[in-house]
Amino acid sequence: MRINNSMEKFIETVFSNKSSLYSILDNYEERTEQRDMAKSVYQALKENCRLFVEAGTGVGKSLAYLLPVSLWAKENNKKVLISTYTKILQNQLIKKDILILKEILRLTRPDNNNEINCAVIFGQENYICRRRLASVLNHGLFDTPYEFAELEEFQKWLDNNGSGIIPEYPKTLSRLSEKISRDGDNCKFKKCQHYDNCYYFRARNEWFKADLLITNHFLFLANVEAGYMILPKFDAVVFDEAHRLEEVAANFFGFDIYNFGIHRLLNSIHNPMANSGLLAHIETSNATQRDIDKLISDAHQTVDGMFTQFRNLIPIQDSKLRIKRPPPIENSIDSIFVSLITSLLESKKENLDDDLDLEMKSLIKRLELYRKGISNFLEADDKNSVYWVESNTLTHRKTPIIFLKSALIDIAELFKKKVAEKFQSIIFTSATLTVGKDFSFIKDRLGLNDAKTQLLQSPFDYGKQALLFVPTELPMPTEEKKFYQNCALMIDKILTFSKGRALALFTSYDSLQKTYDLVDKSKFEFLIQGQESTFELLDKFKTDISSVLFATQSFWQGIDVPGEALSCLIIVRLPFDVPDDPRLEGICEQLRKKEQEPFSTFQLPNAVLRFRQGFGRLIRNKKDRGVVCVLDKRIVTRDYGKSFIYSLPKNLPMTFSIEAIRDFFATD
Ligand code: SF4
Questions:
Q1: Distance 196 CA to ligand 1 centre (A)
Q2: CATH number of 644's domain
Q3: Are residue 380 and residue 471 in the same domain, yes or no?
Q4: Of 10, 269, 529, 599, which is the most buried if we count CB atoms within 10 A?
Q5: How many A from CA of 281 to the centre of ligand 1?
Q6: Chain segment 37-49, per-residue pLDDT in tens
Q7: Is residue 628 part of a domain?
């Protein structure tokens, strides 16, 4: 079916040189890619299609889907959900793109009842529960005097028209937020005296009126798991940052239990030493209190004992160990938790205050979830899951944090059944969905091989704006010691030519540290991921133009530093997953069973996608110029290196000579 002609014309006009966008945005430039994407998205919605659109950096993909989605929603009285991975993008949509969209519609279709209604949806724990907050105050449910002072200040914010949404509070709340935020198990719904004025339900009412709902992948999946009961019914979905969907789903449908989480839960029932926790505010007989305290104390000890056994399974501290079969550890927590739950239920007085009763029920439910989670972990019997133990020693804690985790190996079937088959139209978009210009990898991982695709190149002129440098004289990354020594020397030289202004991306914190120890730190300010919050680090990096940022993991994607501060991007190693990563191991095993070769079918495409994400940090607008230095020579010496090179912009010039960097920056 062809798309409605008048609508097609309208979309073309909006993204043309006659566009009203010129009067809205100072630096708007017409982009054919943006127009093509908008038309395809509209068409996919009209034709009930699933569409994957890769839109290179600079296409302006947010507006390219927001406009057609809004037109379609209005035309057909439908609701569309937009899901992102990062808060950064969610904020950009709310604070910038939606406002531009509204302005376009106001200027171009003023008589058409086209005002778009958008609602942002946060997880329930982000909303203040007025009843729980009143209960904390009435019953004095504070664990420390600091919490009391903190709540007083927070209350002032609420009284001063604070939104009741915790992330909008200008300060960071401590664990107090767990006591005053909404908890579905602890909600009285219409029976609550605060219902008409409830922050959560007031927001929820807005969700039902909205044409566009904006949320994140995690909450989207929580809604799927809850049988689509959390969010209002919607008719189509746009997944932005769709390249992260598989990973989020794999972890979402697994679990994550850690020793300190259980200790905290036990303390929130009762901590006799601090006389805090719920039981400190409930009258019970001395004998009952003693019995429960004894069980809590036994539970603390048993948790420590069991988690120490889990940790002892890991041969190297601060690493991960995959659990392939039930570990030889007795489940000593189960019976204590059952006794504790029974005692708590028996201790409940008939005339217990309603609010405290709800708090108690919620704590019991969480105990039960931990009990079941640990049991599942010890059985480790789901063939489509991987299980592992992970430890993390923090300098400020005496005992390490020990995690019991699981994740799904393959989400394709689940995603197809629980998501794809529920909606006729789904749009998946990102700047990086293809490997070697081919969508097969992501389509296969999400189980959507019959989906349509559209590949839109970045409008940037990489031939003039960028340069790729590969120093082939460096040792192979496999010769670890020599590699890092030579990398450090090479980085020193690169930074001299680039005058700092560089982001160096590493594949692990260990390699970051090894290189940092060896580089010359006398000429530039070095910023290191982990030493400050991401926000502060990025702020310093942008402000102190010559500074050099060493980062790993999350900095490979999502960060946006246009301008001079990021003129040089250094990719130290090709970003292959570490071979002993539990989920990677599970995926490789599964692929081998299907007689597929894991390296070419998973490890390589996955690394190429991450590499492209990293590369995308360099050029953020048409004025940016910069050099990308890949210190891992396998990109040109190994056969598979072609997959990385071929995934970069076609006209990107490549050099093996460091002098070319000097020449490149000499024309600044
Ligand atoms: S309705 Fe539920 S979430 Fe809202 S204030 Fe009452 S108990 Fe809290």
A1: 9
A2: 3.40.50.300
A3: no
A4: 269
A5: 21
A6: 999 999 999 999 9
A7: yes
Contact 527, 550 (CB under 8 A): yes
182 in contact with ligand 1, CB cutoff 6 A? yes
In a domain, 443, yes or no: yes
- Pair (471, 612) in one structural domain: yes
| Residue 245 domain flag | no
The reported pLDDT for the residue numbered 27 is 74
SS3 of 147-164 = HHHHHHHHHHHHHCCCCC
What is the H or E stretch that residue 82 is in?
Answer: strand 80-84
Pocket test for ligand 1, best of 129, 183, 361 (most atoms within 8 A of CB): 129
Higher pLDDT, 374 or 352: 374
Statement to judge: residues 521 and 648 lie in one domain: yes
Last residue in a domain, options 392, 427, 456: 456
What's the domain count of the chain? 4
Full residue range of the structural domain in which residue 51 is found: 5-117+412-456
Give, for ligand 1, the residue of 166, 188, 193, 362 to mutate: max count of ligand atoms closer than 8 Å to Cβ: 188
Query: Residue 226 is encoded by which pair of tokens?
Result: 């809850």
Give SS3 for 549: strand
CA distances from 247 to 412, 465, 490, 555 (A): 11, 33, 34, 17
Q: How far is CA 17 from CA 21, 100, 310, 354, 455, in A?
A: 9, 17, 64, 63, 23
Both tokens assigned to 83: 């899901």
Q: Residue 353's pLDDT is what?
A: 80
Does residue 276 lie in a domain region?
A: yes
Q: Any residues with CB less than 8 A from the CB of 222 and at least 6 apart, and which?
A: 123, 230, 252
Tell me the one-letter amino acid at 668. Answer: D
**Strands 452-456 and 50-55, bridge-based pairing:** parallel
Condensed to tens digits (0 to 9), the pLDDT of residues 615-646 reads: 999 999 889 999 999 999 999 999 999 999 99
